[in-house]
Specification:
The chain is of the alpha+beta class. Helix content is 25%, strand content 31%. Helix 1 packs across helix 2 and helix 4 packs across helix 5.
Length: 414
């Protein structure tokens, strides 16, 4: 398979799935503990795994899960959720990752027929060259003493409740899947996915301090959910000022978001609050007296790639009627290298097909993937050479048809 590295593809099954997990763990300087291996075995589909080996030693790993993701306009599509991607430190920068990505993406297209792929990268510089494009999320580092809410913004009718493990798994699943109706980029959760995330917190796979699960309710109707751990800096575990780490956060409306932040920012004996993985359009900065004290920054979140252009573009809803001819460049999936017509004029269904007409734009798979979930900056795409506008009359159509007011956000890290 790989003449330079003399690597062959190893078929993964139940008998060698542990070897696959151990190889991935070593690449990430993790210890392949019993829990680490079991959490992979619980959800993995060995048939989808890619393992490149030198003799009987696994050198490179990549896995994926067949899932569903929410799209603009309360639509959804099947998606390949990529995870467990690794290359052993002894074989880095030898083209092994590129080879695995080539194999994997073409299998998504031809074998699994999934029009989209998503992943959470360990390093953001890696996956752009394989056609993935980032969504964005917000991170906070908050000194609690510097935060004061604007008077009267908190809805007193909303209630926060601590949850046990079983309750947390159910609420995480139910609320996430309800969120799919209003926000793009949400991966549908099964109970197994939610259970793995909650277990990761309980057994300290994430964080080292005690974990807590809280639901936000409006007259017993769940509208928000947060998980967090408390990290105490004192050696004896006493009541010293501690840091609070928010791991998962979701809410269905603005009032739920306000109540959730009101709860988190008023926990006693906490000095610093770290929140990573918050929707990019989160409202916290608008409801406190000094938003600069939040140390807020926008960073990359979930990454998405269009695998099958025609099926992906037919799957989402558009906000403007019209037609556009575009010529696409994809360095990995050859079937995408073509000229296409996108027609959103029909009330019943979007039309996307190949075309022999002259293109209005030329675009890379990265550029189209970045536009896909609805939040993009056309000037940035032009500056990065990911899009070339040939017919300037189509600029308004691109902006109006693809753009969404609600930013994509995926609460689940897989």
């Amino acid at each position: 398979m790989n003449q330079q590295n003399k690597l062959t593809r190893t078929i993964i099954n139940e008998s060698n799935l542990k070897d696959f997990a151990k190889a991935e763990a070593i690449a990430y300087t993790s210890e392949p503990t019993k829990y680490y291996i079991e959490r992979l075995e619980k959800l993995a589909d060995p048939k989808r795994a890619i393992a490149l080996s030198n003799g009987d030693k696994i050198i490179g790993t990549a896995n994926s899960f067949s899932e569903v993701i929410s799209l603009p306009g309360n639509k959804s599509a099947n998606v390949s959720a990529v995870s467990y991607v690794s290359v052993q430190p002894t074989h880095r920068r030898q083209g092994i990752l590129s080879e695995m990505m080539n194999i994997q993406l073409n299998e998504f297209y031809s074998k699994y027929k999934e029009p989209l792929a998503i992943l959470w990268p360990s390093e953001t510089a890696i996956y752009g060259r394989f056609g993935y494009a980032p969504t964005h999320e917000k991170h906070y580092e908050i000194a609690k003493k510097d935060v004061q809410f604007i008077h009267g913004v908190v809805n007193k009718k909303f209630e926060a409740k601590f949850l046990d493990k079983k309750e947390a798994i159910k609420l995480f699943t139910d609320l996430n899947n309800e969120l799919m109706k209003s926000r793009p980029g949400v991966m549908k959760l099964t109970q197994k996915w939610a259970e793995r995330r909650i277990n990761d917190l309980i057994v300290h796979h994430l964080g080292t301090g005690p974990s807590y699960f809280v639901g936000i309710y409006n007259h017993d109707n769940p509208v928000g959910f947060v998980t967090y751990t408390i990290e105490n800096s004192s050696e004896d575990g006493g009541n010293m000022p501690a840091s609070l780490h928010i791991w998962d956060i979701m809410y269905l409306n603005i009032d739920a978001a306000i109540k959730l932040w009101d709860f988190c920012l008023n926990i006693d004996l906490v000095e610093i609050i770290y929140a990573k993985g918050v929707p990019a359009d989160d409202i916290l900065e608008s409801i406190i007296m000094s938003p600069g004290n939040l140390n807020s920054r926008i960073t990359t979140g979930l990454w998405i790639r269009i695998v099958n252009v025609i099926e992906a573009l037919k799957s989402r809803k558009y906000n403007k009627k019209g037609k556009m001819i575009f010529k696409l460049k994809d360095s990995i999936i050859n079937e995408n290298n073509n000229t296409f017509l996108l027609d959103t004029e029909s009330e019943n269904a979007t039309i996307c097909t190949t075309s022999n007409e002259s293109p209005d734009i030329e675009i890379t798979i990265n550029g189209l993937s970045e536009m896909y979930l609805g939040t993009f900056n056309l000037n940035n795409l032009i500056a990065s050479k990911n899009i070339k506008i040939i017919n300037t009359n189509k600029i308004n159509f691109i902006n109006d048809a693809f753009r969404e007011n609600i930013t994509p956000f995926c609460p689940m890290h897989f």
